């Protein structure tokens, strides 16, 4: 396999020298606890419940008192340019938003039950919860629901493999105004749905809201390397994207689709997503293209003249892969999915081709340039092999998309 061949070009971290990073949550408007576990830590800082920073702190052997914790957090927030205060927009007088939550899965796990519990515990009640089983013959999800007595969830069976097909099955089943998608390997903040619906409620012109994804744990080198790769978080500032006044700063815009968010935490107005024909079923996990379906739909939202908002308060926690082998596979697939998405748009949207040609040079620089924003989070110890593995995926992507177009699933 190409990822295995590329391993010789870069070393991997020595697991024996790695110290797990503790993840702690602190709300500056509440009593701050002492930190007694020594070693590296990452602190999710909140103000009145809203996340405003995710800062590194090194805890000495003697620990940190509450006063020392506050001082360390205040200094980190001031130096790193995090939001000083939570942003609150004034809501317009519009009707409440009914939200359908769709969870896609293909295997019965405790993680799926955890996500369901988290969704039930939201500060606002979902209009409905839909679970789409994308491997119903073998997943065991139906049996799990019967064993657990789960009767408050609509179970949709999608026999055709593919994440895009699963999400589209959830879209077809939705009866809400807004549809919010989750994967089954996350934990959901209790204010997640409230934050999403508030954005939609405040501004009826918004068609899509993406949220922040932070690591559930940083206990292995693979999990830490994924954060260096870029992770899923897009920062703590709310950002608005469209084709008019909110175009972003990248020369690639809007084709640097990764700035918009990640599919594991994306939501849409149902009528807008249906008007865009949902997710492209030739992209995504379960197809030769491996991914790219989320980048594609976010780009379609923007190119259609609609508005997308990244809202950091819509927070979920993701279970990163613990093993290096799984990380290599993941990053290779990301490379495949990204360039498969670009190939799809070149093939299917001829009106976009002049824009794509204009950004070709910037795109190459974005992928290969050492000073590119794509590589800013990587340290000098980041394995060169991972960069080459991703590049191998990028090269394969257009061919994978062509295979996906020819692939037929009954």
TrEMBL record:
Residues 100-253 form the Glycosyltransferase 2-like domain. It comes from the Bacteria. InterPro entries: Glyco_trans_2-like (IPR001173), Glycosyltransf_2 (IPR050834), Nucleotide-diphossugar_trans (IPR029044). This is Glycosyltransferase 2-like domain-containing protein. It comes from Paractinoplanes tereljensis.
